[in-house]
């Protein structure tokens, strides 16, 4: 039995023919994350606090996500109270050295439609 992986397995006809596999950076992004914009938890998403962090369930896509960092949970919950994701990070006390990790987490949540731009 093969070991489970959390990364997508590339393959298919293009890989078999030797054609280059496109990098994730070159793929179009429908939900590009801009930290200067106002964001919120998607109205179709339920957030359930847990001792390890939180569970996010998207009722539209049926995706389940685990947030294993209490700071990220707090930031996601506070997005609706701030004019931008940058403001939410600042209010949470995220320093400049840690900021890229939190931006990456928020970008992943945006790409999976767990958070969305606030209008």
From TrEMBL:
Residues 1-27 are annotated as: Disordered. Pfam families: MftB_chaperone. NCBIfam families: mycofact_MftB. This is Mycofactocin system protein MftB.
């Amino acid at each position: 039995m093969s070991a489970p992986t959390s990364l997508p397995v590339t393959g298919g006809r293009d890989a078999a023919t030797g054609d280059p596999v496109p990098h994730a950076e070159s793929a179009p992004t429908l939900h590009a994350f801009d930290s200067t914009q106002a964001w919120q938890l998607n109205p179709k998403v339920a957030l359930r606090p847990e001792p390890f962090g939180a569970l996010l369930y998207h009722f539209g896509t049926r995706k389940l996500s685990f947030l294993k960092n209490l700071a990220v949970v707090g930031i996601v919950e506070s997005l609706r109270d701030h004019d931008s994701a940058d403001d939410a990070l600042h209010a949470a006390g995220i320093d400049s050295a840690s900021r890229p990790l939190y931006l990456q987490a928020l970008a992943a949540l945006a790409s999976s439609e767990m958070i969305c731009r606030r209008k």
